Amino acid sequence: MSKYKLGVFPQDQYRFRIFDNTAKLKDWPEIMTAAGPDCVAAMNLAYFALSAVPAQGISAFDHQSAIMVAGKWGHEPAYHEYGICINADGRLTLGTEADAVYDYAVALPPAVIGGRDYNTSTFARNGVTYLGLRSDDTVVVLISVKDQGMTSAEAVAAMRQAGCVHILRWDGSWSSRGCLGPGQALTPSQYRLVRSWLLIYKRGDEPQKEDKPVGNYIVTAEVGLNIRSAPAKNAPKMGGYSHGAVVTVLELRDGWARTDRGWVYAAYLRPVSQEADRTTDNGITIQRDYIAKGRKNRPGGVNSRRYITIHETGNKAATADAAAHGTYLKSDSAEAGQVSWHYTVDDHAIVQHLPDGETAYHAGDGADGPGNTTSIGVEICVNAGGDFEASKRNTAALVRLLMGEYGIPLYYVVQHNRWNGKDCPRTIRETVGGWGAFLALCGREKPDQIIGTPAADWAVAAWGKAKSKGVLDGTRPTDPATRQELAVVLDRLNLI
Prior knowledge:
Helix content is 19%, strand content 26%. The protein is built from 11 helices and 30 strands. It is elongated and about 95 Å long.
């Protein structure tokens, strides 16, 4: 004969409520009858006073741990600890008193939080009541009456075996009692009147909901977004998403969003389909024409957006404008070639093909190369009949927008050539002073203020400081210095 009974309650089929037994109904049969025919299970819950302690102002049957019922505190929190939070819809989550909004009860020190041992204290065989949550939020209840009893190690092992990642312990000994469904009654031989109960109701005959994605969202928090094991701000962290990452949301609940990795705060997500319109400072509204997710030329992943890489399309056909390249990127040919980039710009439009925070295959330095994974790829159209100078101006306006949005310095606006040596952007490279003039457009500075190849990664910080302090003029970062130039630098540092 098993020492315990186990109940498993998927939350799309069951709802939960805390019941405060102020009327002192005898036991779970009377309580379930009072709760109505939809109540299918009940378990004892929080700690309470078995006898009066007049010196401390405690009466018998008083709550002895924090509990909220229908939005009202039955016992104010006296310490900070994990417990169960239940919203008005009957959804149960892990949380603390700070997360309480409708029903809440604090557990005895929890055994396991986020799959890790949280409290290592042990006890000998006794009556036990445990509640656990699986990673999909299914609720699991274990009760063993004191007549059979379990040790703490046995109870935790059984809950882990049932798939629980959070395991909370409740009042035990002769209090452990309840009913977990037909044939699952648990009544110990010694009677005890119990103060608080968790009641479990059938949601009805609605069909079980499939775990279909709600949609794709972009992380908007500049510092990134923590992933938590439960929809509560004090739940254990399980990793994080970087700013700009695109995530698939499986469920939205009470201000939280569930992804395949855990729960995140929904306020820092923006639906991809509802991205705000972005307009450059020269009045061009960016058109979004995304490559479908799942295609081989949309690898996903995370792009840190440290650089902006400038390309030219090389396609001189009269019809090869930005919109045409958007159509190409969604074709089977582009997918087969695993070719993609973030933006195409012509003399009248800017079309975006991928979210900025996703990797693209544009730099020719390998799937995991820094050009593909740390830069935003921008293609300038060179179509016959198009105004290439206007296309460059529009591209510069886009670059200014991206620099402002992501804090990218002008010296991290680079040529495709930087990543794999390709002669691209070819027209600009073949024009004497062409690259400096383009950077001048991007920074709205004079061409002679930004000339030469940008500083190497290892020198960027020092180069920026030297320029800002007037030690160097900001030109020709990779050129050798003459002795007279060195003398000027030393003079500016007051070293001679």
